[in-house]
Amino acid sequence: MSAQTKPIHLLPTMHLIVVFAIGIWWGVFFWHNSPARTLLATTPLPARPGGSYHTGPGALASAKTNILNSKMFLAARVAEPDLLLGISVLVLFAIASGVHVRQLDNWLHARTSGDAVAFRGQDLTAATIEANTKEQRGVLR
């Protein structure tokens, strides 16, 4: 048995590439305009009275880690609604435009196949009009 390969459909492939490009663009735009970005900007640790840390480098690293963890948690909480709304809009756009791309691809495939060309020589509209204009018999003429 020979395995038949499916033909590559150009429109759905282009649609997928465009949706990924829009998603990447939105991610970059979100990162540049997100309020979470300003929260994650590095700020110096508050200085202790006396001007130096007497507890050693381990305590300084621990204080930086705690501040970073709290800043990341706060930034995630601030960015959560924007992320959820943006991702849901991207998913809805991908699904809705994908339906139309699929319909257009099916229409183009039917137009270029021999099925639609076979009906070109037949006058289907004239036959339909003729069938509907026959004289009716009965009470309602």
Descriptive notes:
With 141 residues, the chain is mostly helical. The protein has a domain at 10-42 and 58-116. The protein has helices at residues 10-33, 35-40, 57-112, 114-118, 124-132. Helix 1 runs antiparallel to helix 3. The two termini are 63 Å apart. The relative contact order is 0.10. The mean pLDDT is 75.
Keywords:
5 helices, single chain, 141 residues, mainly alpha
Q: Indicate the radius of gyration in whole angstroms.
A: 32 Å
* Fraction of residues in H or I helices: over 70%
Uncertain ranges: none
Which quaternary structure do these chains form?
single chain
- Number of DSSP strands? 0
Question: How many helices in DSSP terms?
Answer: 5
Gap from first CA to last CA:
63 Å
- Our estimate of the beta-strand percent is under 5%
Please provide the ordered H/E string of secondary-structure elements: HHHHH
C-alpha geometry:
elongated
Structural class: mainly alpha
Largest sheet: none
Rounded average pLDDT: 75
Summarize the structure.
With 141 residues, the protein is mostly helical.
Secondary structure blueprint with pairings:
Elements: H1 10-33, H2 35-40, H3 57-112, H4 114-118, H5 124-132
